[in-house]
Amino acid sequence: MNIDKLSKRLELVSSYILKDSTFADIGSDHAYLPCYAINKGLAKFAIAGEVVEGPYQTALQQVVEAGLETAISVRKGDGLEVIEPQEVDCITIAGMGGGLIASILERGKERLSGVKRLILQPNIGAHHIRNWCLQNNWELNAEEILEEDGKIYEILVAEKIDSTKAYTLSSADLLMGPFLRKQKNKAFIKKWTEELKQLQRILTNLNQAENPEKVAEKKEILEKNILLVSEELK
Ligand code: SAM
Known about the structure:
Layout: H1 8-14, E1 21-26, H2 32-39, E2 43-50, H3 53-65, E3 72-76, E4 90-96, H4 98-107, E5 117-122, H5 126-135, E6 138-148, E7 151-160, H6 171-176, H7 178-183, H8 186-207, H9 216-233
Parallel strand pairs: 1-2, 1-4, 2-3, 4-5
Antiparallel strand pairs: 5-7, 6-7
The protein binds S-adenosylmethionine.
S-adenosylmethionine binds next to strand 2 and strand 4.
């Protein structure tokens, strides 16, 4: 992967960036995504945010090497603290767990004013993001699932909606994704077949727990999810 050739995963993320926008890539690491998006004319300005010193230096170096200092601002900071309210139209957060992405959004909520689209690529735990979107008036309007190098990735695209336009998602939609459930492609079937085995393994272990009352709540959630996934794969 380099700034001219992204992974399939990041290329698909880039395809959802709003045309001519200013966007922030949070957890940018090597800044490949902002460099690619600017070079391809997908956006007019980008902010690459990084919280860790090493990747921050790598991003800075990459932007200088690509001669893109006037179009990409590399900033060091935690999550959305690198952007000001009304500064960006679009945000990408890719390559992290869904729980971490949701916590970055939650902690930086007040900086989301002016943002029209979120493009989120969790490696695991996408349900945390769907849940956050639902609670915060961001409506999912596209989802992707793909396999690359033996790993399965999801991409969730959400846009801000008026609080009067609240929507609901079923438990199955929250867990597996409303758009992904409709497409039910090969990667989706593979992911949930593997997840089901894993959920069943965890349940077997919980059934052998020494203090059943301590794991009762966890067991109930697991059993519910096992049922949802089994139904989905029928
Ligand atoms: N986004 C790139 C991608 O998808 O290939 C890099 C993914 S890399 C696995 C995750 C990056 O997010 C790391 O460089 C890490 O330092 C950064 N990161 C983790 N938590 C962060 C936070 N709270 N704020 C900003 N960056 C964060």
